[in-house]
Write a structure and sequence with these properties.
Strand content: 5-15%
Number of strands: 6
CATH topology of the domain at 71-205: Alpha-Beta Plaits
Distance between the termini: 23 Å
Order of helices and strands: HHHEEHEHHHHEEHE
Number of helices: 9
CATH architecture of the domain at 71-205: 2-Layer Sandwich
Strand order of the largest sheet: 4-5-3-6
């Protein structure tokens, strides 16, 4: 929503802003409103759409489009709402504090998450859906031990139900603690995974990969 509002306001002011600048501006607005540190990863899909690998490194941030992955992802992806709200800022800040304090166990888990992310990127390039599911599971196994509250018994029951119904892998989206989950399953098992998640208490959400990202359309004769 922030990206959509900024895009509309920029158009109304006849202002041209680089996409990278737009993501940074949106992040600073969010941090100011929430009075807490925020990430930048959520703005890139809103700006560009598509499927991409994001890299945040010493030399700056980069986005690499993964061509041809959208169709396959849609055929294998199941998204559901757990029914549990979460406060990702609180969870993430506790992890940042642990890293600053030199917590070796947390740093080791973050390394495992990084490895899983790179594996997932390669699997998307190769359309290796079982491998991508395994990367999701590896990420979640490392992530849920980063801080109390990232995983809950209710969430674990839902994720377990998806896997038992035939999903290649599943994890909570974002920081965990609730919110939405994503599962990857063979197309022939998607309906079974959806049914298992619904029986476990999740709300199945219709989803698709946005191909366009931010599009601003002037309304004719808006008064």
């Amino acid at each position: 929503m922030v990206i959509a509002l900024l895009g509309a306001l920029d158009r109304a002011r006849a202002l041209t802003r680089a996409s990278e600048s737009l993501s940074g501006f949106a992040g600073r607005i969010e941090a100011h409103v929430l009075q807490a540190p925020t990430g930048l990863q959520d703005y890139y899909p809103a700006i560009y759409g598509g499927v991409a690998a994001l890299s945040f490194g010493i030399e700056g941030n980069s986005r690499t489009e993964i061509e041809g992955a959208a169709d396959g992802l849609e055929r294998h992806m199941v998204v559901a709402y757990t029914g549990l709200s979460h406060a990702s800022g609180h969870l993430n800040w506790s992890i940042v504090q642990a890293v600053i304090d030199g917590d070796a166990a947390v740093r080791e888990r973050l390394h495992r998450i990084s490895v899983a992310a790179l594996q997932g990127r390669d699997c998307l390039h190769n359309e290796d859906w079982p491998g991508l599911g395994a990367a999701l599971d590896a990420d979640w196994e490392a992530r849920k031990g980063l801080a109390p509250g990232i995983s809950t018994p209710e969430c674990e029951r839902m994720l377990g139900a998806a896997r038992q119904a035939g999903a290649f892998g599943a994890r909570l989206c974002g920081a965990g603690g609730g919110g939405c989950l994503v599962a990857l399953a063979p197309p022939s098992r998607r309906d079974a995974v959806k049914a298992a998640l619904a029986n476990a208490g999740a709300q199945i959400l219709d989803c698709a990969v946005d191909r366009e990202g931010l599009v601003v359309e002037p309304i004719a004769d808006a008064g």
